[in-house]
Design a protein that fits this description.
about 850 residues, alpha+beta, 13-stranded mixed β-sheet, four-stranded antiparallel β-sheet, 26 strands, about 30% helix, about 15% strand
């Protein structure tokens, strides 16, 4: 079993639909004939004709339209609907409040985003004019709704994020898209009453704290200190008159804390349901995905199990991880309140320790509750005199099409959140009568998002399609004739709820034309059986396989696997390299056997989905742990698997000897100080060996034994044994999988301050503490030059490999399938990737016939 944990904040950068519909009109001056001259000309008045031309408006002079292209279509040409198989919806089709990826996709069909990214998630800053970026040897021109820029001022330690909209874009009802819509969107996301999933409010936008709490800095500091005192006193503190706070304030803090943990538990449940239900429900809770999809209690079970908070035994009884409550999953089921109680029990009530570590999207519960507490009590302080803070000082409208956001400090990943918003229509989601930027009115009353919430089920925006209705488990869309890239060719699109196991048959029979399926050997075989060539792509179904946003790995705790207690010494690194070399040689066979076409071996501790991931064609690219202690290649291209294994064992022996082990007759016979002859690895495979890395470990156990070292494989039925060992810093080796984001920020996982007890994220279970690595991570954060950052991250990855604390194992695939018979496959956007979905360029998609 895996730990499906997100360790860095997530903002899913949605589908980047981008374009402009614009028309330019000119007026031709009238030409008049001169009067005919006679022999004796009469004196006549010269006829005049006044040519009236319409003067351009001031806005047209200042902001000329910027069309996406010429002769853009204004109406659809294909009446056959496109039907896409989808998992169940929860009808939160809102750019503000969608919880699941499926609901977010519905909203994204109707929206445009400020930020444009390419096929590897790289930012296209000059999206109005367009930038050409090469992928797979093919140059692609990317255009989008806005130009963006990021400028860091070292003197003030602030960063300015600027977005300038393409002029001439319209929402689907014909209303122009302007900076006012962007301002409205920001203020909605940053209102203190906002409870959606975006992490935009976690960034230190200048003036945000003051605005959300409606307090001055002095009052903020006062209630910040008061919050800390109440929290430190503890949940069970009995209030007395001697306390510096009131009973009401104490009760309010803990009520808010509980509510926020419940909300985070719900977000975990939604995240697991959206991303892992189909692939893992059957294996980890013994219940079919389609059954889980229809039951909220079972969704909670899956969310808790995959997050390490409990397990389901052979009798089908679910037991929580720390409160040890039991549920028979027939008449009794856990709730998100149950989940909240178990999280608090596991962390002994320490919310700061639990979050953001346990969060599905990096949310900091403690900070969020503190902000809400101060926002509630600060404005009531007598020193405020009834006056509030009218605006967010760091968010400015520079002109009718340009917005600027200023943030304290700099962090490269922040751009994906700050400029990654969708541009929502003020006139639809807000109240135009309540918008006056110059007078600090932003389209709604402070603290009241009731209008935005009331439209959660009915999205509207400037995207390629208009939402029509949700009926009988089908979402209906119609083409947006005002879409700035031009009206889509297909008049109607339907998102049809379909059980994941039924997606291949739905596409084969014509019930659906396309759909996404997660890995399953059975489903792969089914797809191949429909095609006459027996392949994943053929005459009936065409498949597009893209990397999952994450990767599998084997971890080694440098604090527990070292020589003489010095985790970063060359001897310690050589010890770990010996183990890693043997494990690495067994990866290909194991991963192929477990996943087949569904996964591939990776060689760096980073997902292939990232733009920063080293590619085989890059200078300096190496197979993981493929050189010996002298730096020479271990393998040759001609070697058989048996020869490669023998070479790996010989190389490992060389590393062990360099680490200080005594070697005699081809085996190690004694360990140096602090090292061992035997190590343990925990693999959460449900006690039955059901894990992608299990075969790696069983084969590595044999190879290590050949050179005299023992590997003990611990496959517990309860995965909490692993997570508890990691949290206790007692584990030596383990297997797990990382969830990743569009930006490869390494701070929370590899920086020295992220080691448990060092005051950071406590996600650095490897105990890698390297000053050079720390500096590289910080350097990469402080630059917006992607080429520079990629080079720096490559150096950082090399340091991690040199420490030999992580052995990258596999990159899993997700699969999107299309009907070869009913969709014109040539019109699907080429080179689909994790960050460039098939719905990009959807306006160009065609149906056959």
């Amino acid at each position: 079993m895996y730990r499906f944990k997100k360790l860095i904040s997530v903002l899913v950068v949605g589908i980047m639909f981008a374009s402009l519909l614009a028309a330019c009109a000119t007026e031709t001056p009238v030409v008049t004939e001169e009067p005919e001259v006679t022999e004796e000309p009469e004196v006549t008045e010269e006829p005049t004709e006044e040519v009236v031309t319409e003067e351009p408006t001031e806005e047209e002079v200042l902001f000329p339209e910027q069309p996406f292209g010429e002769n853009l279509p204004t109406e659809p040409t294909i009446d056959t609907p496109l039907v896409v198989a989808y998992n169940a919806f929860s009808q939160k089709f809102s750019p503000f409040f969608s919880d699941t990826g499926y609901d977010a996709d519905v909203a994204a069909m109707t929206q445009i985003s400020l930020l444009t990214t390419d096929r590897v998630g790289g930012i296209v800053h000059n999206a109005i004019e367009g930038e050409t970026v090469e992928y797979n040897g093919v140059p692609y021109l990317y255009k989008g709704p806005a130009n963006t820029s990021v400028e860091y001022d070292e003197a003030t330690d602030t960063t300015k994020y600027t977005a300038r909209l393409r002029v001439g874009m319209k929402f689907s009802d014909g209303t122009p898209v302007t900076a006012d819509d962007v301002i409205f969107t920001y203020y909605t996301f940053l209102d203190p009453s906002y409870v959606g999933s975006t992490t935009l409010g976690s960034y230190d936008i200048v003036g945000l704290k003051d605005y959300q709490t409606q307090t001055t800095s002095e009052v903020f500091d006062k209630y910040d200190a008061l919050f800390e005192e109440i929290y430190t006193a503890g949940r069970d503190h009995e209030w007395s008159d001697a306390d510096a706070w009131t009973q009401e304030q104490q009760d309010d803090l803990w009520a808010r804390m509980d509510a926020e943990v419940v909300r985070e538990a719900g977000k975990i449940v939604n995240y697991v349901d959206a991303n892992y239900r189909d692939a893992y429900a059957e294996d980890y809770i013994g219940i079919a995905p389609e059954v889980v999809a229809e039951d909220e209690g079972l969704k909670v079970v899956l969310g808790m199990v995959l997050w390490g908070f409990g397990g389901v035994d052979d009798a089908g009884v679910f037991t929580t991880g720390c409160t040890e409550e039991t549920f028979d999953l027939v008449e009794s089921f856990p709730t998100v309140e149950t989940y909240k109680d178990d999280i608090l029990a596991c962390y002994e009530g320490d919310v700061q320790a639990a979050f953001p570590y346990e969060s599905a999207d990096g949310a900091d519960v403690f900070a969020n509750v503190k902000s809400a507490f101060i926002g509630n009590w600060g404005p009531l302080d007598e020193t405020m005199g009834g006056e509030g803070v009218p605006n967010i000082a760091g968010i400015k409208k520079l002109d009718d099409y340009t917005v600027e956001v200023t943030v304290n400090g700099y962090s490269a990943p922040a751009v994906y959140s700050i400029l990654g918003i969708q541009v929502t229509p003020l006139h639809y989601y807000g109240d135009v009568a309540k918008y006056d930027y110059e007078n600090n009115m932003f389209g709604f009353d402070f603290g009241d998002l009731s209008k935005q919430e009331s439209l959660t089920a009915t999205p509207m925006g400037a995207g390629p399609y208009k939402y029509v209705t949700y009926d009988n488990k089908v979402v209906f869309f119609e083409a947006n004739e005002n879409y700035y890239r031009g009206c889509p060719k297909i008049a109607e699109v339907q998102f049809k709820e379909t059980a994941s196991a039924e997606v291949p048959s739905a596409v084969q029979t014509g019930t659906a034309d396309a759909g996404e399926m997660t890995y399953s050997g059975e489903r792969y075989a089914e797809v191949k059986s429909y095609n006459s060539n027996g392949e994943m792509t053929g005459d009936v179904i065409t498949s597009s396989m893209v990397d999952n946003l994450g990767y599998g790995y084997i971890g080694i705790n440098a604090a527990n696997v070292n020589v003489a207690g010095e985790a970063g010494s060359e001897a310690s690194k050589n010890l770990r390299k010996g183990i890693a070399t043997i494990m690495s040689v067994h990866r290909d066979l194991a991963i192929d056997s477990y996943y087949g076409e569904g996964a591939s071996v990776i060689n760096y501790p980073i997902s292939n989905t990232s733009w920063a991931a080293p590619q085989p064609t890059d200078d300096g690219y190496e197979i993981a742990f493929s050189v010996d202690v002298n730096g020479d290649p271990i393998y040759t291209a001609e070697m058989s698997l048996e020869e490669r294994i023998a070479a790996a064992e010989a190389a490992a022996l060389g590393f062990f000897e360099a680490a200080g082990y005594t070697v005699a007759n081809g085996v190690i016979t004694a360990a140096p100080e602090g090292a061992k002859m035997s190590y343990e690895i925990i693999v959460p495979a449900d006690g039955v060996g059901d894990h992608p890395a299990f075969a790696i470990l069983t084969n590595a156990k044999e190879s290590l034994a050949n050179v005299g070292m023992e590997l003990n494989i611990n496959d517990p039925a309860d995965s909490n044994i692993l997570w508890d060992a990691l949290d206790a810093e007692s584990q030596e080796l383990w297997t797990a999988a990382w969830g990743t984001t569009i930006d490869p920020d390494m701070y929370q996982v590899y920086h020295s301050t992220s080691v448990i007890g060092a005051g950071g994220s406590e996600s650095n279970h490897y105990h890698i503490q390297d000053a050079d690595l720390d500096q590289l991570i910080v350097d990469a954060r402080l630059s917006d030059d992607q080429n520079y950052r990629k080079a720096v991250y490559k150096q950082a990855l090399d340091v991690i490999i040199d420490w030999a604390v992580e052995i990258p194992t596999y990159q899993r695939l997700n699969v999107i399938i299309f009907s070869t018979e009913r969709i014109n496959i040539d019109t699907i956007t080429p080179d689909i990737t994790t960050f460039w979905g098939w719905m990009n360029d959807i306006e160009l998609l065609e149906m056959n016939g």
